[in-house]
Amino acid sequence: MKKIFTSKYTYAIWVAILFIIETLPYGVKMMFKNDIGQVFKHTFSYFSIIPLKYSNFGHLLTGLITIVLLIVSIIYMFKDTEKILKLIHNLSFIASITSVISFSFGIRTISIINLIVTISLIIISRLSDTNEFKIVLKKREKRKSKKGNKKKK
């Protein structure tokens, strides 16, 4: 079980699922009033331009950063380096911040999809940070063992 969350495929799979969730038309919830005063809601995809017209740009930024994060995590599957893992961490952290921007429009505009995306981005950021730390520790242990072997000779 522990190996699943530290696999290099984890990030690509998780971000691909996030991308699919963001394309669904339930992520962005906006409230409108008609002339009578009745309030009604509309839901949109993260990639819809309509919320952008109403200054709700956090979702679109989150969606665009998720696309970049998906590309970087696919690259990480084939070339797992510390720099790419750090980039995954930074992108997911920035995407989680842009996702939180939408919370400023009020509690009535927060959807379940929005919460899932935000929490998942925070988890991805945290996992990549933890795995990055493990990589650094492994490199230090290798250096120490190489130095120890040189001193013995």
Model description:
The chain has helices spanning 2-5, 10-23, 50-53, 58-78, 82-101, 112-152; strands at residues 28-33, 39-44. By secondary structure, it is mainly alpha-helical. The protein has one domain. It has a two-stranded antiparallel ribbon. A hairpin with a 5-residue loop joins strand 1 and strand 2 (39-44).
Keywords, please?
single chain, 153 residues, mainly alpha, two-stranded antiparallel ribbon
Radius of gyration: 20 Å
Unreliable runs: none
**Number of separate strands:** 2
Q: Please list the strands of the largest sheet in the order they lie side by side.
A: 1-2
Please bin the fraction of helical residues: 55-70%
Query: Number of domains in the coordinates?
Result: 1
Describe the secondary structure blueprint for this structure.
Elements: H1 2-5, H2 10-23, E1 28-33, E2 39-44, H3 50-53, H4 58-78, H5 82-101, H6 112-152
Antiparallel strand pairs: 1-2
Helix pairs in contact: 2-4, 2-6, 4-5, 5-6
Brief summary:
The chain is mainly alpha-helical and 153 residues long. The protein has six helices and two strands; from the N terminus they run H-H-E-E-H-H-H-H. Strand 1 and strand 2 form a beta hairpin.
